[in-house]
Amino acid sequence: GQQVMQIPQYQHVQEGEDFTTYCNSSTTLSNIQWYKQRPGGHPVFLIQLVKSGEVKKQKRLTFQFGEAKKNSSLHITATQTTDVGTYFCAGTDTGANSKLTFGKGITLSVRP
Amino acid sequence: ETGVTQTPRHLVMGMTNKKSLKCEQHLGHNAMYWYKQSAKKPLELMFVYSLEERVENNSVPSRFSPECPNSSHLFLHLHTLQPEDSALYLCASSQDQGLAKLFFGSGTQLSVL
Asked: Chain B contact for A86, CB < 8 A?
């Protein structure tokens, strides 16, 4: 079945450093979504990418969908302590029974 | 406030108890979901309801029984659970099933003793 992979599961950065994480799918995706879950909280939708090569920005966050629509990246410029949390990607495959599959997420910690 | 409300926030139950989780969405969405979130595992989709009809059951054990009486309410009835069922149970809704973004509730942290 479809797999969505996020490696590593944990990353620690110094406040002010940039951070990039990747999401890889075993199948071609029709879309990819990113969610953020703060410690003790619930996942909150951040962005959805649909087009091949699409790039979207939200303040210091930049999201990209790969040309082959099998991977995606999230880049945070100049991390802040408010960026702490777990970032999940989730992709919908292109099959007839398309369903959203989540990756395990990457937990980001930021040292002040 | 996401527009999706879950109760209770925390639940401790014994293996012989029967309990129910409740979810209510105030967003006018047509699809509702139950997810299980365990440590070090991806979010696991359990059930999907679209327009009050169950459209997906991901091989969930029968000790979990969902109910969707209308498009705004979703229940998860629990019976004879096992300790490995301890997890955060998240309800979500979306405008329609498919490519729509999910709005999650705050979850119920369940501990089975």
From this structure: no
